Amino acid sequence: GSEMCKETALNLNEELESESELPEKIVKLLKERDEARKNKNFELSDMIRDKIKEEGYAVKDTKEGQKVERL
User: What is the pTM of this model?
Assistant: First the structure.
């Protein structure tokens, strides 16, 4: 339930420590993308990555998780 959501958010925040000024919209998309990847829904994951790109951010997948950079 909602507890897992909080955990995901914490993990994302750690990964994005230098990106704490990320717009809420981007953070939400990243969480959705994380879920999509967990569910092996790579088509959705790619769609979300494109949406994030349209907002001016590049997503890279690393062993630690998603990294976001301003384009």
Answer: 0.68
